[in-house]
Fold these 2 entries.
Entry 1:
Amino acid sequence: MKSEDPIEPRLPRGFRDICAQDLILRRRMVDIIQKVYFRYGYMPLETPAVEFLDVLGKFLPDSDQPEAGVFGFRIEEQWLALRYDLTAPLSRFVAMNKDLPLPFRRCQVGPVWRLEKPGPGRYREFYQFDIDIVGCETAAGDAEICLALADSLRALGFADSEFLIRISNRKILNSIVEMALSDMETDQLTRYLQSRRRDRMQLSGNRDRIRESYIDDIFRCVDKLDRVGIDGVTDLLGEGRLDETGDFTPGCFMKKNQIDYILRFLQLDCSTRRSFLADAAKLIETAEGKEGLAELETMDGNFSAAGYDDAVIRFDSQIVRGLAYYTGPVFEATLTFPVTDESGRKVQFGSVAGGGRYDSLIERFTGKKIPATGASIGVDRLLVAYSGRVEKSDSGAPAALVTVMDKTKLAEYIAMAAELRRAGIDTDLYLGSKGIRAQIKYADQNGIKVAVIAGEDEFAMGQVTLKDLKLGASLSAEISERDKWRKEQPAQIQVPRARLVEEVRAILKRHD
Amino acid sequence: MKSEDPIEPRLPRGFRDICAQDLILRRRMVDIIQKVYFRYGYMPLETPAVEFLDVLGKFLPDSDQPEAGVFGFRIEEQWLALRYDLTAPLSRFVAMNKDLPLPFRRCQVGPVWRLEKPGPGRYREFYQFDIDIVGCETAAGDAEICLALADSLRALGFADSEFLIRISNRKILNSIVEMALSDMETDQLTRYLQSRRRDRMQLSGNRDRIRESYIDDIFRCVDKLDRVGIDGVTDLLGEGRLDETGDFTPGCFMKKNQIDYILRFLQLDCSTRRSFLADAAKLIETAEGKEGLAELETMDGNFSAAGYDDAVIRFDSQIVRGLAYYTGPVFEATLTFPVTDESGRKVQFGSVAGGGRYDSLIERFTGKKIPATGASIGVDRLLVAYSGRVEKSDSGAPAALVTVMDKTKLAEYIAMAAELRRAGIDTDLYLGSKGIRAQIKYADQNGIKVAVIAGEDEFAMGQVTLKDLKLGASLSAEISERDKWRKEQPAQIQVPRARLVEEVRAILKRHD
């Protein structure tokens, strides 16, 4: 070990360490959400980080290549992967446990891993908190998921005006795109396929699959509305889009009347659930679309019955969701106020949770349809918004530091620390090798509130000195008031050793 | 998706799903331990699951091949790995954060992954809860870790007679082995190397490294004392050991007088800390051994100062710990009572936590010695013991189920569920497609206590029926008492709809 060159301590791209304050806050946030999920009857489950690659499948948005986006690896002749979400493992779990009483409500919180391009605030390991209900085929299940999301955001202290649950339905979107494509010409598909340089062998002779893939791409374009705006979507649906950096994205080669039909849907009045339902009904003609609309009608009724109005939950034609496996209602939770991000900038935050119905996912295993719906909270994103909200955030620092003036008296200091701990006071005992000044600096750096000091004099008199570090800090800050403060509330006092616990408590009480 | 053959839902060997009850219990246990660690000033940290392979290094016990035991994989031209413990990532973290105020106390809980042979109760993904103190060079740090372990076990409800913190010191062990080998002949090393078929090129010309590796193997033999007993260790140190299955493990070819010296140390009287210190002093002659003994003297003083006697913390010559990187005190927490394992058998549980001082590990990165010591609790193992202790264990099931008799009245049922939830009662709304009998069975299977039932009659009268499912279950169990019970506390009552919340609360109160 000693003869080798030092190894550079470093983390792989897209990974990070999370420190005390953020962890404590995340724990608090997760506990609050967990309580809401319990309130709705969702039971916790923990699946492993590692699964078989084929079991997870590949349902990530925005990625054409198989396995792209997934941390896959070969171990003992088998292809394994780190889970990229919590939905694929849930599907596997349900398929493996055939005796599970249905409907099965479960929640799961934990890290997922994606091999995507990391960036500011975008990590390759991030936390999700999912709820899902398996074995419920009606839209009442979808409605419940939305209620639980709304309750979670309320429980975290967000006002009704600060978030919105926005809902659409893949059946309606399908219907709109089908209607738009009713006058599609072969030429359109050919140009599309050529522009994508799609492996035509893979799709050859299978017009249905070509069409399916075409429609998926149209959805993907519409899903970019947030980022590129109506003009951008118009370009993407048409001949293609040139972005600010000069990159060109080929379009879907839809005709003007087709695009117009889709844009008309995207610009429907969504200010109330009833107005959306009424206006959408006028545009939708297919049976599937009407089914989708009826599901939203049901959900509207459920929301009203539970007491949630348009201020909190709305229908929104612009919600698409990236994942290909959604089969019915899709939803997103959006924060409506600007959030200060890690780098201190105010940003419109957008989606902090999303989900939808996926009635065919479990069928991959069972060959039998098992309906399911659910949502996933982006814990790290939401935490940024939540941490801006919490008044005093707990640094996790201990309350007191027992300093060590005289190393030969260590037993005395240990006894003091043990006494304070037994009294329920989080206490650090200084175990480094530096002097008292450095020890006080160490306490300040760690956010410790009280330093316990005892040297020769104190031991001789059966006393200890207590230094109020928070008061000390405010004294240095307001130097003009210094003498006044010193008289009224001295930052440093000597007290009998026997009264250690009470006196430390008294100082801590000042700063509660 | 539909045209393909179904995929078999399955988990890779050594991985498992953890369900509600165990998760809730684990959370409770972890929270209790966390509180103790906070009491001692340890701050939480979370490092990622994925690290660079060379950064983690390879310090697993019982394994000679590089990378064996580690989930390593190549992504984007780089060798990565899942962390196999929380100590290697901590060392990397400390080396990366040069401005960290020292001593740095951190705790971390989370899964680690090991590519080892899975077996009953042995998984490839398991939880550890670590505390470490970095930048403390004195044995007071080691003593503090032991105190925090003892306090954790006490906080979990284990009596002082039910566990033991057992401590030894690598410096003493080194000294004993060095003394034993003082008359070593070249022949001994040659036989050892031949029996292991060690790559002699790797070690060739480096007598020091051969000797180091030889001593490591001697430690490994002694570390097997728990499993193979004194006779087994005698064989392993000597010519080799034939186990019950007929497998032969080559020995270390030590001579009888050498083995006897080691056995004398292993059989020292460890009943009190003072007796161990007195007896060990007679055996130890090297400077390193005396240093180790002085460290244990310090720790003994610290334990006494903090009020922990021999009933809880002892010195024990049989503690070795498998890891090669320990440089000073090593410790283990052992449960002293038989635990009922997953398969219902009573087993002597042995170690639930272990650790030690590793003063050279961070040096791998920094080139500079940064002393550190710490311990790791085996969360899953300890959970098995803890769960045997907890009186009522929370299944995580919701308290109430609102059943659905008439699907056209769903809005009414949703309103009831919303009302109960707002009143703080965890409530499930039945969203499957089955009838009322199946719904009651579903409630029983899930451990739900109260079913809310409303059909045509109830709606007409403005009433709801409440069924006390726990009482119902005890009624069926004690069938002879049935009529008596029915009169006094009927399992099913009708109450006004307006009193839903109060009446459900009243039933739940019976079962608190």
Note: The CA atoms of residues 5 and 422 of chain A lie 46 Å apart.
Entry 2:
Amino acid sequence: MHLESLKSCSSTKARAGKLRTDHGDIETPVFMPVGTAGSVKALSPEDLMQTGSQIILGNTYHLLLRPGMEVIHSAGGLHKFMSWKYPVLTDSGGYQVFSLERMNKISEEGVIFQSRIDGSKHELSPEISMDIQRSLGSDIVMAFDECTAYPASKETAQKSMDLTHRWERRSLKYFRETEPLYGHDQRLFGIVQGSVYPDLRKDSAKCLVDMGFDGYAIGGLSVGEPKEDMYAMTDVVTDLLPEDQPRYLMGVGKPEDLVRAVALGVDMFDCVLPTRNARHGILFTWDGPIAVKAAREKEVHEPVDKYCECYTCKNFMRSYLRHLFKANELLVYRLASIHNVHFYHSLMAAMRSSILEDSFSQFQVDFFNRYDIKRAGE
Amino acid sequence: MHLESLKSCSSTKARAGKLRTDHGDIETPVFMPVGTAGSVKALSPEDLMQTGSQIILGNTYHLLLRPGMEVIHSAGGLHKFMSWKYPVLTDSGGYQVFSLERMNKISEEGVIFQSRIDGSKHELSPEISMDIQRSLGSDIVMAFDECTAYPASKETAQKSMDLTHRWERRSLKYFRETEPLYGHDQRLFGIVQGSVYPDLRKDSAKCLVDMGFDGYAIGGLSVGEPKEDMYAMTDVVTDLLPEDQPRYLMGVGKPEDLVRAVALGVDMFDCVLPTRNARHGILFTWDGPIAVKAAREKEVHEPVDKYCECYTCKNFMRSYLRHLFKANELLVYRLASIHNVHFYHSLMAAMRSSILEDSFSQFQVDFFNRYDIKRAGE
């Protein structure tokens, strides 16, 4: 998988390109909304298209536990099951198993765990994760890794990284031995680990590039480490990844994180933040996030952002959104999510345009001059 | 207010017509989705339009308590506040006060009650209800009445009805002395009471027709009385109401109720049933309601109704809807509500067409032959 029409910024590591999949092209840099359980919370496929979503993420772990693979496979894969015609990326399931479940057994082979939903036993391994992602039919499949917990001693981080490398090699081997199930192509990304240790990160990047994946993710960040460590690790890793292949910073992040990481040469992002914050009444604008539930919005009969082109801003006032939140009206979770996802995509599109015009450095300065991180009073 | 282009069925009392308002025409018979707190639960104005909604109902009582009249008035009325460009009917607030609140005082003057939300004291009277509905700016305003509780002795029902008549006379007088606030016209409907006593219902209908309202509602039904009483009272009342004015059966009902009441000459209905049932996974089809959460739907990769033209049926399978319900995904409340509201409007449109073609009797036979009331296993 290659970034086509690649254009690079002359003063930062930012780049703009295009990824081709059998479900359509993806213009990068790109933000991927998270459809945890086969639905980007509160949004329909039509909403996603209208907000500018090009690719969404599905969580293998959640879909494995509910509805289960037999349902999604008999439905014809995840695209058909959720009625989404555009690209899908699925994670390997590893991250959630390590962070959410009571682990029964972790071994060289893989992981055995118990479902929180019904207590049933499940197994994940590189091979099983590949099988599941073949059943889901995602356009981009992630290798099975161990997300190193933070903080980790260098010894622990090294051990975890070595296991990840063995698991990723098995993922790649098994992926190559199997075929897509639904007539469209699938691609496999490797995941760089190494905690906050630059030399481990370098080793990991080199090791994975040697294996030869379709794209490379940077994992194990945004897990509690200082922001500056996250940027430093990203910077170290992107220096070593192939110029013409996609780079994906997993689980990131806030608008300001996206701008900084694009400057470090990242092409792809996913995060629950825009949808989760929306459901809590935190709405993003170019001036910073606002808390639309605040008393001061009670009679503000103006949209969240009067220049915003989303359905919410074109039709509804802050006073109404605030009222809907106070009344627990279901409509507001959708309206707020539409706005935030639209904002994220607008931010990515603006970065892409500035890269294509080679004015990204100026964009970055302007963005940080205007964007008030603390505006919502968080 | 007159029903234009009125066409009557030759063998039942069913009729089809058109009501003109400053926010557009309404083709009758019509079903009005309920937007209790300034939102038809889980649906946007765009969803409502696409499902075929011509007019929606707003609850004075709920809007009075939250967000309060000053917010809606400063927003420019309920249409602007909720971004709904088509007709709105508001109730008087009386029904909810009598059924939901701790009454502090009920007198000839009106009602004083305490808000469940914040304990604040509120007053409702014919004049206050008219003022509130002027502030809301609804196209159709309801007179302030006392909804007689069921069961009621004849003496109690008579007393309650007499009070209602005095309150409705005051509503009409005050309404005539006041002006619309937002440049569009408003119309006032009277409400017939009289519990399940045919002679009281007749007295009430005659008394209100003498006062001269723009339309007439049949109130105090669907409150626990036997279905046959509801139909008998509706039959008695519609015989006495002016042929060329709209008739509205309040709070009704299930699909089978709508068909029977249209046969008795009712033009307008409202009910929370389609949206509430949707949120509980009960979806309506021409073969009866189905329980989409049932285990038997787990791998049914077909729409709820393969001939249905709603967004939900055109895009999603029962297996997916069931999964979303099991996973508590917000999207499903909207998808299910879209389907049910669309079904209700399709049912009304089918009745209207059959009346215009003078085949309503046959429609009724066909409907009841096919529609299995108990299909969802309720």
Note: Chain A touches chain B at residues 37-39, 41-46, 62, 66-67, 70-71, 74-76, 81-83, 298-299, 301, 311, 315-317, 319-320, 322-324, 326-327, 329-335 (CB under 8 Å).
